[in-house]
Amino acid sequence: MIITETILTLFATAVVLALVPGPDNLFVLTQSIRHGRMSGWYATLGFSTGLIFHTTLVSFGVAALFQSSELAFNLLKLLGAAYLLYLAWRYLQASNSQVAFKQLQKPNPWLLYRRGIIMNVTNPKVSLFFLALLPQFLEPDNGPVVLQMITFGLIFIVATLIVFGALAELAGAVGPWLNRSPSVQRGIHRVAAVLFVFLAVKLLFADPI
Fold it and tell me: pLDDT digit string (tens) for 173-189?
């Protein structure tokens, strides 16, 4: 049985990492500001589903492929960077559109959920990070390794839901005030576009752990 100290330590680590600026929490913030807190929650559920994917890979050793195969890592890295650039283009397009400054139509929940999954799954650094971090918490007396790894992944998912959910609630609360100003909306879109381009370039130059 996994001891409480291990759970609390891993949970605290997961909370801190969820707060570090990145494409996932940035997407939750921008969607919540533009379309309300529920849009942020749909994206959050997508990211959490993506973490299930990474947890499964690491638990059964598949993620080691990305660490040993440069080709596999680079292919997934290119897909992730391409999707981030696509999102940057969408935000930049919105900033130049007069339609964006009228009543914003909320996107389809399934679309936001799916985008969250794609953004998370196509980031190989998540699997490699799990592969590097989670084994440090393994204890032979705490049961089968696979079950321990799955438990650790679930702790990360819970932390992500809490932190990203809080971001969605906060951004959703200030969103209506920010959306009253076309210039503020334009600025949010352009800042988001620049940040997504930066994160895409950062991912392109990332090396395996």
Answer: 887 666 556 666 677 66
